[in-house]
Design goal:
heterodimer, A: 204 residues, alpha+beta, Alpha-Beta Plaits, three-stranded mixed beta sheet, two-stranded antiparallel sheet, 8 helices, 25% helix, 22% strand, B: 285 residues, mainly alpha, Formate dehydrogenase/DMSO reductase fold, 9 helices, 69% helix, 1% strand
Chain lengths: 204, 285
């Protein structure tokens, strides 16, 4: 069984946010909800100023704190390591959201489903086909586009990235691209001191 | 630029500290009323005050439940919160609340003479369940490493001490005859609350960058005036002074109790609002 993970190449990310748009489109996300973000930070002192882009998404932790605190059993880990949220079981208590050190949970506020993307109360055909996968009020997150992965495809953010800054694959396969990059370029997980053992790594 | 110098970035696409925004006023109100009701019940149980026990059960049973349901994204499925006591403090707490209402109600009926027998056992079970409700919310918060301010053993201690203090103060204000016994207890509990607050702030100021940011929010920037005026002033200093100099005067006891509750509610609210997620800084080249 594969153990899926992702590598972010910070040298390649140009902060175009195509991944963010690809994710929103693939997952039919309501207004204000993001499963992935590309954070930016400027540092240094003029004239030696630099800007870095840091893509973020759910890290699908091996020891997922969101799963441990979920009182309803809605959050679970698939055998391939993808941490999922069952919309039929989620009660929207938010305990997973305050337990995730990476702030990667999103509230699917009921109003967003009623107001629609344009805030007019009109639900577009695009929203109509996508919203049934969520329960209004639930708290959810990125699932590595599990439907696409099951079909043998890469997540939407990975295929949308124009610079190949996102690399997805099986971390248990030593010959997979992410495994090689982690090994050769010293991949680092985010906030390792939180002991969540993320399956997302950063290389620079 | 050091991590501590990074700004609070809200919901933007910038790197920095992010304020916890998932548990807000309804959850703080639920925590407040849950601990207040359980604390009042527990103190009333020790002093055998049937009215206090009834008030405690009603506060927890009605107000805590109402605010929890108003917080839930999917309230119709909230019964599912009981399903994972093996791993979730929310589940354990919900079981505690059910036991508290059940055994507490039975004990109250027993005290009022409606049901005979098992008095001692019911009292023990009701008291134990009340203690669970007084503390579990602290464990639910401190269990997570995500928000450094909450990830402290002092949070369950603060739940227990605030809960007991609020219970004592409400009973003191509503049953003036008990003043002789309750005033020294209330004074000691307020001093314990002050010690817990100081320890919490000390731990935060010497903790991880996220905890330091939270301490800064509470004592120097965004929430400082609320923290000092309501949590410290109205919640600790005012009741201690009033109880010390005029605790036997019923009006003063009522003002002191109001101050304690105002401080306690503000503490509950601010501890949520001052919780921050730490930035992912280790990747800066």
């Amino acid at each position: 069984m594969a153990r899926y993970g992702m590598v972010f190449d910070l040298k390649r990310c140009i902060g175009c946010n195509a991944c963010v748009i690809g994710c929103k489109q693939e997952n039919s996300l309501p207004d204000g909800v993001f499963f992935t973000r590309t954070l930016s930070e400027e540092y240094g002192v003029y004239p030696a100023v630099n800007r870095v882009y840091i893509p973020t998404l759910c890290n699908h932790c091996e020891d997922a704190p969101c799963e441990k605190v979920c009182p309803s059993g809605a959050t679970y880990t698939r055998p391939d390591g993808i941490v999922m949220v069952d919309p039929d079981k989620c009660i929207g208590c938010g305990s997973c959201a305050v337990a995730c050190p990476y702030d990667q949970r999103s509230e699917m506020k009921a109003e967003a489903f009623k107001d629609g993307l344009f805030g007019t109360g009109e639900i577009t055909p695009f929203e109509k086909q996508g919203y049934p996968r969520y329960t209004p009020g639930m708290v959810t997150k990125c699932d590595f586009c599990s439907g696409r992965v099951d079909a043998g495809l890469d997540p939407a953010c990975v295929v949308t990235c124009p610079t190949d800054a996102r690399i997805f694959g099986d971390l248990d396969d030593p010959n997979s691209k992410p495994s090689k990059l982690i090994r050769e370029r010293g991949g680092r997980p985010p906030l390792p001191e939180k002991n969540t053992r993320p399956k997302v790594y950063y290389i620079d | 630029m050091a991590v501590k110098d990074l700004p609070i970035v809200g919901d933007s696409f910038k790197l920095g500290y992010r304020l916890q925004r998932y548990w807000d006023t309804p959850m703080a109100s639920a925590f407040f009323f849950g601990e207040l009701g359980a604390g009042l019940f527990f103190v009333s149980l020790l002093l055998e005050s049937a009215q206090g026990m009834m008030a405690g059960l009603l506060i927890t049973g009605l107000l805590k439940t109402y605010f929890h349901l108003s917080h839930m994204g999917v309230p119709t499925k909230s019964w599912r919160a009981i399903l994972r006591p093996d791993r979730s403090w929310i589940s354990r707490g919900l079981i505690g609340i059910v036991c508290f209402i059940g055994f507490g109600g039975l004990h109250l009926l027993n005290v009022m003479g409606y049901i005979p027998g098992f008095g001692g056992l019911l009292k023990l079970l009701a008291g134990a369940a009340a203690l669970v409700v007084m503390t579990y919310q602290g464990f639910a918060m401190s269990h997570s490493t995500a928000i450094s301010l909450w990830n402290s053993g002092l949070i369950p201690v603060s739940s227990l001490t605030y809960s007991a203090t609020a219970g004592v103060m409400v009973l003191l204000a509503s049953v003036p005859e008990s003043a002789q016994f309750l005033i020294p207890v209330a004074l000691i509990l307020h001093l314990v609350v002050a010690a817990v607050l100081l320890s919490l702030l000390h731990a935060a100021r010497h903790g991880s960058p996220g905890a330091r940011k939270s301490a800064e929010l509470l004592t120097r920037t965004l929430y400082a005036k609320w923290f000092f005026v309501l949590v410290c002033g109205a919640g600790v200093l005012l009741p201690v002074l009033l109880l010390w100099f005029a605790g036997n005067v019923p009006l003063m006891a009522m003002i002191a109790a109001t101050g304690t509750l105002a401080g306690y509610y503000t503490f509950r609210l601010l501890i949520f609002k001052a919780g921050v997620f730490e930035p992912i800084m280790s990747f800066r080249p």
